[in-house]
Design goal:
Layout lengths: L10 E3 L5 H12 L5 E2 L12 E2 L1 E4 L4 H21 L7 E2 L3 E5 L4 E5 L8 E8 L9 E3 L13 E5 L6 E3 L7 E9 L1
Antiparallel strand pairs: 1-10, 2-4, 3-7, 4-6, 5-12, 6-12, 7-11, 8-10, 8-12, 9-11
Amino acid sequence: MNYPLLTDYIVNFPSAVSPEFLQDLLQRAESDDDWHPGMIRAGDVESQYRDCGMQHLSKWRDLDDQLFEVMSHCSKEYAKKHPEMTVTRDEGYTLLRYTEGQHHRQHVDMMSNFCRVLSCSVIVNDDYEGDGLLFFDGTYKPEAKAGDVLMWPSNFVYPHQISPVKKGVRYAIITWFYG
C-alpha cells in the first residue's frame, strides 16, 4: 500500500489570486501607516520569535469579500483532495509584511483554545530575496509564486517558519480555517 507523504497535504493552488487584486492590495498597503507588530498567541509581541508588521484586511471590505470567494473555493478544492478534513469558517484575513531581516521562527498554527484545522497563506509577491515559507526544520520549501494559495494542516505535524528576508519586502496574507 502506498501511503501519502506529509508534503502531499501541503497543497498549492496556482494563480488563485489575480495580479490585479495583488497590485491593488499592495498599493493600498504601501500607502497605509496602520501597521502593527506581528503577534503570537493572544496578542503577545515577541520580535525575537515573530518579527513582522501586520494589518487586518477587513477594513478594505471589497478586498476582504474577494478573498473570501477565493479562500472558499480553495478550501472546497482542498477538501476534495483530502475528504477526511472538513472546515466550517475562516478566521479573517491578515496581511503580513516582512522587511529585511524580519522572520517568524518555526511554529505550528494549532492552539489549545482554537480548533484550527487548515492553515492558509496567499503569496502576495515574490520579488524579494530569502527562502520565505519553509517546513520541517527548513528542509522543505513548497514551490509558489505571487498569486498562489498554499494550504496545509494546522496541527503539530506541520511545523513551519518564515526565513529572514535578505533583500526587499515579503508580503503574504494568512488565515486559518476551523473544523
